[in-house]
Structures are given as C-alpha cells and as structure tokens.
Amino acid sequence: MVRGETHFSTLPGESVGQPLRQVLGLAVPALGVLAAEPLYLLVDTAVVGHLGAVPLGGLSVGAIVLAQVSTQLTFLSYGTTARAARLHGAGRRTEAVAEGVQATWLAIVVGLVLVAAGQALAGPVARLLAGPGEVADAAVSWLRIALFGIPFILVTMAGNGWMRGVQDTRRPLRYVLAGNGISAVLCPVLVYGAGWGLEGSAVANVVAQLIAASLFFRALAVEKVPLRPRPATMRAQLTLGRDLVLRSLAFQACFVSATTVAAHTSVGAVGAHQIVLQLWTFLSLVLDSLAIAAQQLVGAALGANDDRRARGLARQVTGYGLVFGAALGVLFAALSGPLPGVFTSDGAVLAEIPHAWWFFVALQPVAGVVFALDGVLLGAGDAAFLRTATIGAAAVGFLPMVWLSLAFDWGLVGIWTGLTAFMLLRLASLLGRTRSGRWAVVGAVRV
C-alpha cells in the first residue's frame, strides 16, 4: 500500500454503499486541495481590494482570463482521474500512474504554447472584456506576469488527476498547501511591503504554482514507471479531453460573459461581481470535494465490474451534497452583513454586493447536488453527456439572460438570474441521466 492510498474492493454480499468514514477519508483531503486555490484567491482579492476599485477591477478581469486559459484543460485532472481510477479498480496501479506521466507531458507542452499566446493577446483580450481604460490597463499588467504560471498550473492538475485515481489524496493536499501557504504570506509583502501593488499579487501567484508543480514532479520521479512520452496514451487522453474541453468552454463562455457585462455596468459592479464570484468559486470547489470522492470510488467500482456499487455510491453522494449545500447556504446567509467588508472598503462595491449575494446563498443546495452528480458521471467517464448537457444549459439559461442584462441594464441581478437558470437546467439533466443508469459502463477502460 502506498502512503495515503485507500484500496477499493468488493466482496460477495457486501453492501452497495460506502462507509461514510471512507468517503470522508477521500473527500476531506480533496476539500483541502480544492479549497486551497480559491481560498488563496480570496486572500489575494482582500489584499488587492484595499488598493481601490481600479486594481480590484483589474484583478477581476485578469483572474477571469487566467482561469479561462487554464481551466479549458481540466481533463488533465478529471479525465486523468477517470482513466486512472478504472485501472486502479482493476488492480493495475502501475498503468494508472503511467496515465499521470502522459498527462504531465501534455501539461508541459500545452502550457508553454499558452504562455506564448497569452503574452501576445493579453492587451486585446483585457480591452475586449473591460473596454479601454484604467481597469483594462491594470488587468494587462497583472496578466503579463501571472501567465508564466500556466505550465505549473497544468502540471498540478495532472498530478492531482493520477493521485486521485489511485486514491492518494493526502500528498496532493500537502503539495498545494505548501505552495499557496507560502504565497499567501508573500502576497501582502510584495503588494504593500515592497510597494509592487497589483503586480506583486501576480508574482505571488506564480510562486505558489511553481512550488506545487515541483512537488508533483518529484512524486512522479520516485514512482517505478517509465517517464518517456507515449503518444498513443496521450491521444486516448485527448479523446476524453475533447468533450471535457468543450464542456469547460461552455462554463467559461458564461463566466467571461458575466464579467464582461459587469465590467461594462460600472466599476462598483465589476468589483462586487469579483468578490461574490470568488466566494461562489470557493464554495463550488468545497462542495466538489464529495464529488472528487465519488469520482474515485465510482471509477474504481466500474473498473472492478461492480455497477451495483457504483449506483449505490451515486445515491449516497447526492444526499451528502444536498445536506452540505444547504448548510453552506445557511452559513453565508448569516455572514451577509460582515463578510463583504473583509474584501473591500469601497462604498460603490459594497452597495452592489447585495444584488448578487442572495442568489449566491439560495443556489448552494442546488449546487451541492449538481457538483456531486458531476463527480459521479466524471468518474464513469460519461464526458459526452456532460458536454451536451452543459452546453445546452449555457445556451438556453445563462447566456441569454447575461446579454439581456447588458441590453436592458439589469446589472448584477440579471447576471445572477442567468446563473440560477443555468444551475437549475443542469440539475434536471443530471438527475435524469443518473436515474437512467446508462452511465454505469463497467471495465478497466470505458468503451
């Protein structure tokens, strides 16, 4: 047994459920990994927010661009987990780790290409999103530095992917906390102490990403697997990745559009949207910790040819997600008064926050179920369905409302109404798919 690894097995007559202790044993370390980056971004937002509305708006636009560049490649984590978990469930751990080697090669190559492209396009993209002016200029200055962290972000995704697949969730937590912890201390030092302002925030971001990626490189180096690239495996990963990339593009079209409309509304609106959106991202990933556990366990169950257990896990994690999401909604309803002031003292920003806040609170139970079922279907490798359902919800729910908000000056209320429609449509499609059982395809490789 490897450190942090929880072996999956099924015995004759064993219950289809999974002990809560084992689910939490995978979910809690995953929660730390998932929460570390958005928690760091919340610290970053709080530090930059006290520089004023323009730097905060620049961070909002810059951060959303960086997120779009990196998160289009989430298949490096989620797709790798799906493939590695099936192999691990079938008792083929070496092959599961080898998936991580090939995903890391993809991360390096694609990351370097994106750095070059990003440097060339930073200015035009920032001005497209925010319009000409101070906010766009601030975003460009932040982006030109932060883009150098993209290869390290992608390597960390790949590392998390294969380690989750073999049910080793503790080491990734240590790696990510090491990078983000050091950077959280460094950020205010560079922003205020060194007088670098917004650029200091970008440097601290790159430092965090470099530290974490270095630790994931080391984890692969000590495994007894070949480290040379294998084009056939990478092509198979890209086949699964294609659907996940298209799904990610639908997400990012929504959130880029939302930030664009907020930026064209007012400086106060884009600052408020940045704060509530970062809290939304943070809680989304907190809720996703149960989904990560489900992804690992469902993938392993299907790899071990046990579709009955996989279905039982789907029911369990749905219930957990609903309870967890409802609890978070109650908590952040109670924090509606004091919490926004932690992130900014700007009166215009604080006045806009309530227009988004109550949508954010009310959506938490829905999000708990949606993210849990995402994890189930991702663990099953049901990427084609997730692609189609997400694109449909974006095209019918989110995007029309966001752009109508720009046309009719509905502001943050219109933007967050669009997000609500998006989440409800996803909920309906995921519940229907899960009940159908068509996702539960057994075998070490999904066919």
From TrEMBL:
Residues annotated as transmembrane: 23-43, 55-79, 100-122, 142-163, 175-196, 202-223, 244-267, 279-305, 317-336, 356-377, 384-404, 410-428
One Pfam entry name: MatE
Key word Transmembrane helix present: yes
Annotated coiled-coil segments of the chain: none
InterPro entries from the UniProt entry: DinF-like, MATE_fam, MdtK-like
Predominant cellular place of this UniProt entry's protein: membrane
Subcellular location: Cell membrane
Membrane topology, from the record: Multi-pass membrane protein
Keywords (A to Z) from UniProt: Cell membrane, Membrane, Transmembrane, Transmembrane helix, Transport
Recorded family membership: Belongs to the multi antimicrobial extrusion (MATE) (TC 2.A.66.1) family.
Listed name of the protein: MATE family efflux transporter
